[in-house]
Each structure stands twice: as structure tokens, then as C-alpha cells.
Amino acid sequence: MILGEEGLTAIYGDEQFATIEWSDCEVVLHWSNGSVVVIGRDGDRVPVLVDKFGRNGAQAALDELKRHVPADRFVLMPD
To answer: Among 6, 31, 51, 62, whose Cα sits 20 to 30 Å from the Cα of 77?
Structure first.
């Protein structure tokens, strides 16, 4: 996972990746455990799961998302 000024990129193997620019973020699903799934305008999804990135990594992504994405695009998901 790469967090940048333009957006969020997930890397899946050598040549597969998904990038969602902050301006193209349609919704941010987040759970009370800290996991996040970002969904872009084109349907791409970038999961930032606590199990994979740890609580600090997921929190860093959520903090960055809150800086760049309007609050009305965040949806708290039931556990």
C-alpha cells in the first residue's frame, strides 16, 4: 500500500495494482476494528485490513483518507 498526496495505491504482485485518487473516491467503508475499504468511481477497491497492515497501518490510511475525502463519503460498517 502506498499513501500519497494524490491517492492510495494497493500493489498485488509484480504487475497488478489499483490506484484510487482522492478526488475519485466514492465511498470509504470502515469498521470499528480499524479496517477500511476504499471504493473508487470506476469500481476499483483498495482494502486496508488490520490483519494485513496492522492497526497502525490501517489507522495511517484512515487518517490520510480523512484529510482528503469529504466526511459524507465515510460509512461505518456493522461488525
So the answer is: 6
